[in-house]
């Protein structure tokens, strides 16, 4: 059946117009399609904006807490240089961090990523609106010098007492630019769909009902977050074009969601990059351990490859290596850099760094997978290690690998009180502890690897860590 607009007829000297099916479809279908498209556009915009905002807030809270935790000991010891370095390095770790400030209980700025602000009284923002409370951290939308920022405030605690406050501000421009790009894509796709809908209303009614229902179902799948199934395009007419363009719009929205996933991954990588800086800073506190975490990562990743680990697991192993000594940020310099033998209390404090490192990583949900490894990297195969006395299979495999690489690098590094072992001497020492400190199976693979591979100083080792 064809749908036509009836020609006007003269009846009793007047022109009568009887609307045809095309006119009825124009009056019914276009508003329906318009509402469907608008609902998808609105739902997609809200979902993407909420996801971007959530990721931004979560990263800001995590970074703010790490800064507060890291500044605790330095704040109490009055180490202004360490706090200045922490503020500056954190600011430089991500382009959307506007400033980092550390202030005392009198609200005097003791460290700031902007040198000119140091020593001044803390200046409250021009406008403040609370966004959300995250346990100890407050997130506020503020205005400073006419610029909109999101400011995160976290108390600095030491031994359970508050000694200061850490503030960190993120710009909203990166979030807004992604939102604007997504809106443009959605508006463009919606315009195409509406244009095709205008042509589709001229098609046969028998071919209208089913496609519209499928389009409606597709909208509900897309807006409801279900798995979207492309709608089959049955012909080359306007409805076929409508269906194909709807599929293109759905692909555009799904592609934007993929971009959001990549954006979230970039946020996590930015956070990991900041922790790399902190790990390097810890190594740099002792010139004889400079680069230790990177060398441990190289050795561990190569051992992981020889054990047949997939690349994703190698990635996680490398990050665990970079984090394994992060707890030493709480170890005082007079213990960490002491050239003589440690006293019993000093040795006990040094042994607490796996627990301290695990507590730091627990602050970021995305890093929880590394907590068991960091806590257990000084456990022994026979159960004589610390802090929990785990043994054999109770120790995560990544922690056992790091234990081997950590011991090897420590033995082959020259210290003020002894010359570093040669690779073969270190291997012989590791073999002495096979079955006690180290897993027999891992020890055999490790020793074979060291004897086959070149030394860490050669270019052939470059790039072994991811």
What is the SS-derived class?
A: alpha+beta
Number of helices: 14
Tertiary shape: flat
Distance between the termini: 65 Å
Lateral arrangement of strands in the main beta sheet: 4-3-8-7-6-5
Structure description:
- The protein is an alpha+beta fold and 466 residues long.
- It contains 14 helices and eight strands.
- It has helices at 21-77, 80-92, 173-200, 209-223, 238-284, 292-306, 311-323, 333-336, 344-350, 353-362, 371-376, 397-412, 423-432, 440-452; strands spanning 9-11, 14-16, 97-104, 109-112, 127-134, 137-144, 147-158, 161-171.
- The protein is flat, with a radius of gyration of 31 Å.
- The model is unreliable at 1-18 and 456-466 (pLDDT under 50).
SSE inventory with pairings:
Layout: E1 9-11, E2 14-16, H1 21-77, H2 80-92, E3 97-104, E4 109-112, E5 127-134, E6 137-144, E7 147-158, E8 161-171, H3 173-200, H4 209-223, H5 238-284, H6 292-306, H7 311-323, H8 333-336, H9 344-350, H10 353-362, H11 371-376, H12 397-412, H13 423-432, H14 440-452
Antiparallel strand pairs: 1-2, 3-4, 3-8, 5-6, 6-7, 7-8
Helix pairs in contact: 1-2, 1-3, 1-4, 1-5, 3-5, 6-7, 6-12, 12-13, 13-14
């Amino acid at each position: 059946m064809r749908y036509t607009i009836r020609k006007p007829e003269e009846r009793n000297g007047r022109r009568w117009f009887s609307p045809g099916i095309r006119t009825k479809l124009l009056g019914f279908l276009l508003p329906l399609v318009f509402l469907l498209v608008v609902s998808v556009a609105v739902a997609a915009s809200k979902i993407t904006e909420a996801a971007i905002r959530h990721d931004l807030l979560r990263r800001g809270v995590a970074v703010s807490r790490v800064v507060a935790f890291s500044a605790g000991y330095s704040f109490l010891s009055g180490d202004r240089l360490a706090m200045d370095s922490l503020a500056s390095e954190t600011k430089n770790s991500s382009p959307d961090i506007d400033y980092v400030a550390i202030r005392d209980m009198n609200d005097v700025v003791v460290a700031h990523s902007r040198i000119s602000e140091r020593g001044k009284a803390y200046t409250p923002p021009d406008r403040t609106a609370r966004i959300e409370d995250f346990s100890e951290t407050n997130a506020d939308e503020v205005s400073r010098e006419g610029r909109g920022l999101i400011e995160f405030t976290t108390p600095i605690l030491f031994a359970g007492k508050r000694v200061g406050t850490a503030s960190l501000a993120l710009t909203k421009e990166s979030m807004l630019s992604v939102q604007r790009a997504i809106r443009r894509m959605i508006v463009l796709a919606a315009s195409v769909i509406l244009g095709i809908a205008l042509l589709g209303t001229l098609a046969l009614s028998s071919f209208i009902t089913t496609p519209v229902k499928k389009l409606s179902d597709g909208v509900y799948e897309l807006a409801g977050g279900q798995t979207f199934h492309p709608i089959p395009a049955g012909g080359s007419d306007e409805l076929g074009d409508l269906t194909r363009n709807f599929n293109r719009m759905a692909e555009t929205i799904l592609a934007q969601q993929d971009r959001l996933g990549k954006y979230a991954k970039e946020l996590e990588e930015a956070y990991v990059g900041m922790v790399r800086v902190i790990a390097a800073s810890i190594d740099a506190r002792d010139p004889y351990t400079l680069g230790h975490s990177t060398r441990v990562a190289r050795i561990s990743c190569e051992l992981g490859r020889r054990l047949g680990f997939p690349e994703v697991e190698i990635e996680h192993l490398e990050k665990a290596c970079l984090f394994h000594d992060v707890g030493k940020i709480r170890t005082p310099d007079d213990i960490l850099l002491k050239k003589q033998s440690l006293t019993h209390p000093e040795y006990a404090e040094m042994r607490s760094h796996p627990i301290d490192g695990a507590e730091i990583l627990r602050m970021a949900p995305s890093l929880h997978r590394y907590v068991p490894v960091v806590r257990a990297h000084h456990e022994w195969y026979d159960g004589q290690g610390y802090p929990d006395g785990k043994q054999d299979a109770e120790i995560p495999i990544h922690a056992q690998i790091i234990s081997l690489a950590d011991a090897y690098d420590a033995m082959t590094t020259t210290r003020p009180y002894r010359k570093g072992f040669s690779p073969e001497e270190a291997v012989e020492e590791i073999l002495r502890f096979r079955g006690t400190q180290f897993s027999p199976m891992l020890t055999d693979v490790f020793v074979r690897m060291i004897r086959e591979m070149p030394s860490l100083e050669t270019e052939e080792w470059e790039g072994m860590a991811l």
